[in-house]
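[agent] plan:
  1. take the single chain provided in the ticket
  2. run structure prediction with default settings
  3. attach structure tokens to the ticket
  4. add a short note for the reviewer (M.T.)
[agent] executing step 1
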Amino acid sequence: MAGSFRTKALAALVLLLAVGPAIAQEPAYVRFTHAASQAVRGSVRLPGTMESRVASVVAGESAGLVTAVEVQEGDPVERGQPLAYLRKSYYEAQLRAAKGLLKEAQARLDLAESKLRRAVELFADEIVSQEEVDDAYSEHTAWQGRDDQSRAEIERLGLILEHCTIRAPFAGVVVRKRTDVGQWIVLGGAVVEMVALHDLLMRVEVPERYFPLVEPGIEAAITFEALPGAPTRGIVERVVPRADPQARSFPVLIGVSNPDGRIGIGMLGEVALPVGATVEALVVPKDAVIRDGANEMLFRIKDDETVEAVPIVSGPGTGSWVTVEGPLAAGERVVTRGNERLRPGQSVRSELLEYALP
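[agent] step 2 finished; step 3 output follows
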């Protein structure tokens, strides 16, 4: 870790020099918290691959000719948004026929019901036989069945027509288009492939020796070489207790929030997992850390009530705190509110802001 800190600290000097000296002005109001020494677990850094929590090949629930495709690869879509349309004319004709048969069945049913009622009355007066009553009852039952059948057919065709508009089953991004205008899709045929981007999973293969030390609920720090911005935090959700027979490693799935959609599916990252023995480490609130690309720093309040920029390297988080390495000591005041507008050497008026230690 020490070598990693020296490398990043040198890079952070560029940031500090770019900030430049403070311009004479009124003291800035800030809030501070004391850096603390805290017992934290050691960490191991492992490569991981980003996966979507929800990925789907969206299929058509009706067969038909594609008349329009409303999306292209890379398009974001909301849940329920139309993706494609199928030709409806054939099903609409069937629906009209089914409605006609229903009208006939209803008329026949009304007549059969009247005949049955009359037959029962005449049987009571001993004018007709039991056999004639049974015939009237059978005819009524048959037309009742035809009525029910016609209504079910109308409902079925209504669902088919509704499914001629193929909609997104969840909010996400179209990653592949599987059909186009003029193509015929069968029932269950693929239309597009979609992934959800706002809620992701990082898959990490954890070596066997670390398997007993990883538990659901622990927080992990994730960095991406392709995204040199602020590190991402994730929570271990599942530890799969089955090792790869060749690598002897166990899959660990870490939940990652991706509200701005910057993290792509399949992106590689480095995960810092808290494992191993508990050691004393320097911690500061996460709010104190300022990042510019891969460089990190914080502002320390000196005895003369001016601020000094301190290059640091952050490590695993623990609650609202994060471990750091750098020229900083426990008990020193670090700015946690108002630090985004400070410049080195600037005078400040400070007020304590307490953070509950983890």
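[agent] step 4 note for reviewer: Residues 113 and 140 are 6 Å apart (CA to CA).
[agent] ticket updated
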